[in-house]
Specification:
The chain has 128 residues and is α+β, with helices and mostly antiparallel strands. The protein is built from four helices and five strands, in the order ββββααβαα. It has a five-stranded mixed β-sheet.
Length: 128
């Protein structure tokens, strides 16, 4: 199998995924993903699509990741891995879609408005 690539985004995090046949090694920015994401919850989020398809030991995954915070980066990686797995096997799309792994979460931080302290917060109103 040749290398399959895909893209995952969440907030300001962008993950470029490269998958090839292998033994289950996942590296993010040339580091093992367990040293990159030290939290077990974030490690679980990254491997969710692979666990759903029982494909954790089938592929070597290389990821280029930048922008965003820890949570946004992990969810960007999850989306990218799910998209790459669908490119490899189109029948797996329905399984991944039912758990919400194929949906791009488009929520972003709302911009600050002029004359206000934050996006929606207002200064205290004084009648007199």
């Amino acid at each position: 199998m040749e290398i399959v690539n895909s893209l995952g985004r969440r907030k300001t995090a962008v993950a470029r995924i490269f998958i090839k046949d292998g033994s289950g090694k996942i590296s993010i920015n040339q580091r093992d993903f367990k040293s990159y994401f030290t939290s077990p919850i974030l490690q679980y989020v990254v491997t969710q699509p692979l666990n759903k398809l029982n494909a954790i030991e089938l592929y070597d995954i290389s990821i280029n990741l930048h922008g965003g915070g820890c949570r946004g980066q992990s969810e960007a990686v999850r989306l990218g891995i799910a998209r790459a797995l669908v490119k490899i096997n189109p029948e797996s799309k329905q399984i991944l879609k039912s758990d919400g792994f194929m949906t791009r979460d488009s929520r972003r931080v709302e911009r600050k408005k002029p004359g206000r302290p934050k996006a929606r917060k207002k200064f205290q109103f004084s009648k007199r």
